[in-house]
């Protein structure tokens, strides 16, 4: 539907390596034929589902394909261009810095290369404002988390406002947030905004209770926070009192099977309460979606009017980690486009 494509959008939850399109994957596969990787190993097509565990296997495969500065530059530029082509005007991209001995890739160069891709897109006048969140993979434990925070802190000061925050992601069944708390506190104290994956699986209740005290600036998923799915009133109270926006990824949650069907998605629970919700793609490549499709899906599943859809996309501006003048610029852009599109 043209309306959803034309709708100006804000994307706040997109993992770089999960966002690589079919076409870009094809290029990577041709570059590395010896790996014998096929599309079925990097994407979950329509109607297909995987366990969350299988989803994390997919990322391991993609990481084999994207393992040098050259790959990262290509992938990051392509992903930014894809989002722009889908009508995303503001994007916060997140990625876990990796080091790869064979290609000489370091974590520092990893981040610098993503920032170079952002710079090149800007220079080429791609119509999108891009910021970056440095991601901590919880699987790697507290020492790596602390190192990553230090790296993120350096870039917060040197990247001209492009690095704005820290993400906590990775397999939610591995490790406990209590071990990462001091790294996250450090990040917060040095001015990094926190976007944390919380309660993606039911067993994270105590962890969420703890991490919500930080508090995070945004919540990723938050699937099992509310009491109807085994969360608690106390968790909901903390989220509501602190008015913490929740990043919602419908297709990702249904294909990853943490949510049984679209109509049972927790978007419904939070949206009805008037809580800040922002629709996002999570991994548009892996889950074969885009942000237009996510808006359309939410509208058709929950019966949202076009006016309500517009409000949803406009309100997301307020949940970005962008400085105030950028938010104002985006508000202006939305206002200009409104008569044309709505
Ligand atoms: P990258 O950080 O390499 O750019 O993107 C892939 C990584 O993002 C994965 O290895 C994983 O750590 C994280 N990730 C992507 N999708 C999800 C998700 O749905 N849940 C969680 N917890 N982590 C994810």
Give the tags.
alpha/beta; eight-stranded parallel β-sheet; 342 residues; single chain; 14 helices; binds guanosine-5'-monophosphate; TIM Barrel
- Assign the CATH superfamily: Metal-dependent hydrolases
User: Which small compounds were modeled alongside the protein?
Assistant: guanosine-5'-monophosphate
Q: Main sheet, how many strands, which sense, barrel?
A: 8 strands, parallel
Shape type: globular
Query: What number of domains?
Result: 1
Ends apart, CA distance between termini: 13 Å
Write the layout of secondary structure elements.
Blueprint: H1 2-6, E1 9-15, H2 22-31, H3 52-65, H4 69-85, E2 88-95, H5 107-123, E3 129-137, H6 141-158, E4 163-169, H7 181-189, E5 193-198, H8 205-211, E6 218-221, H9 233-241, E7 246-248, H10 250-255, H11 267-272, E8 277-279, H12 291-302, H13 306-315, H14 324-341
Parallel strand pairs: 1-2, 2-3, 3-4, 4-5, 5-6, 6-7, 7-8
The structure holds guanosine-5'-monophosphate.
Guanosine-5'-monophosphate binds next to strand 3.
